[in-house]
Design a protein that fits this description.
Length: about 425
């Protein structure tokens, strides 16, 4: 065997040895990386590679550095979570997050301190626990959806509580969740009720006193006239007595009518609901108000901004509201009455009834829905208050959106 052959064999052996060694080293390094990834994925971080080894020491330092960066990021995220948790625990709004997946539906992922305190529970892990407080409460949390406010009333150890709930959808770790924010509005409702009662009492007192005071005064005058006639032994003035009794009779009938109107206001029939197109309802209103509109030379315009708008309601009661608004507009001198219907982004049906008549006085705008409040000399003051009551029975609302020299607009919403 010559020298060249020996050199070639030696070179081949060295190359083979180098290749085998490289493969072994690569395999070992691959195992280290796989081990580290598996450990981090399982949440295990209590490991570190030796950096003093001659073979692979530099690679171990790189892995340890990556491990350190990962640990620092995890620590920062945990500190951030703790910080946000403290922030959420310090607010007065209850926050509850629950799982919406089929397997884990109803599992509570997070509830802040205000949530457990408001619900009267030491902790909550599933929505089923809310049924021990109130079945209505559990249903409210299950049914609340994005951009739709829901209210629920329940009794805690101290008193009756009413909360307002709103929700938004999100994902955590790839699973859908619902985030529910809720507030105790018991005090707000009580305050609003007190204001409403005060307004109503003022109106009732005003109306009753306006009727009773003249009756009392006139009857007292007639009584004195009769006494004087008896003392002087003369015939009382029959004509004056007749006029006085007629005035008392008229005033008494007016008071009876007022009380009867109030009784009707408190006895609104439960709506008989069915599905129908808004277009059909507006056509009905157009027919019912045609004479009044034509008599005042006004135009009735309807615009549908969404196709085939359906609502589920009592057609008779809703048309009563619209007829009242159209007649009010014509009485205010409107030359154009416009009704617009649409479906908004939250799937609510919105009906706007506008007119270009005289605006509602600014000082009256906050009072127009108060029973018996009216700016008309011959008005009963129950039209708009009755309209609001009907809309509430439909789980809807009616508000005065604007009233100025250009336009007056009422908005009806059907959820």
């Amino acid at each position: 065997m010559d020298a060249t052959t020996v050199i070639l064999i030696a070179a081949g052996s060295a190359a083979t040895a180098a290749l085998v060694t490289g493969l072994l080293v690569h395999r070992r390094l691959h195992r280290k990386v796989s081990f580290m990834l598996d450990a981090l994925e399982d949440g295990e971080s209590a490991f570190r590679y030796r950096e003093s080894k001659w073979l692979g020491g530099r690679f171990n330092r790189t892995l340890n550095r990556l491990h350190g960066i990962f640990d620092a990021e995890v620590k920062a995220l945990r500190e951030q979570d703790a910080h946000y948790g403290k922030m959420l625990d310090s607010i007065r709004t209850g926050i509850l997050v629950y799982d919406c997946t089929e397997r884990g539906e109803g599992n509570v992922i997070y509830a802040n301190a205000a949530a457990t305190q408001m619900l009267g529970l030491p902790s909550i892990s599933h929505l089923r626990q809310l049924s021990t407080v109130s079945p209505e409460l559990m249903e409210a949390f299950r049914n609340v959806s994005t951009n739709k406010e829901v209210r629920a009333t329940f009794n805690n150890e101290r008193s009756k509580v009413t909360i307002s709930l709103a929700a938004t959808e999100s994902t955590i770790g790839g699973r859908p969740v619902r985030i529910v924010a809720f507030n105790d509005i018991t005090g707000e409702i009580a305050h609003n009720e007190e204001i409403s009662w005060n307004k109503l009492i003022r109106v009732l007192t005003h109306e009753i006193m306006n009727t009773v005071t003249p009756i009392a005064s006139l009857s007292d005058t007639l009584s004195k006239d009769l006494t004087t006639a008896q003392v002087n032994e003369v015939e009382p003035d029959a004509e004056e007595l007749k006029r006085g009794l007629e005035t008392i009779s008229t005033s008494s009938k007016g008071l009876i009518k007022f009380v009867d109107t109030y009784r009707n206001l408190t006895r609104v029939a439960a709506p008989v609901k069915k599905a129908f197109y808004v277009r059909e309802l507006v056509d009905r209103v157009r027919v019912l108000t045609a004479d009044k509109v034509a008599e005042n030379g006004a135009r009735f315009i309807y615009e549908e901004k969404s196709d085939d708008i359906l609502i589920y309601a009592d057609a008779g009661q809703i048309s009563q509201i619209m007829v009242n608004l159209v007649k009010n507009a014509v009485q205010a001198g409107a030359t154009v009455v416009r009704i617009e219907a649409s479906i908004d982004w939250s799937e609510k049906v919105v009906v706007r009834i506008s007119n270009n008549g005289a605006p509602i006085p600014e000082e009256a705008a906050d009072q127009i829905f108060v029973p018996f409040y009216t700016t008309k000399s011959d008005g009963s003051g129950i039209g708009l208050s009755l309209s609001r009551q009907i809309m509430r029975l439909h789980n809807g609302s009616i508000v005065l959106e604007r009233s100025d020299e250009k336009m007056t607009t009422f908005v009806m919403e059907f959820r």
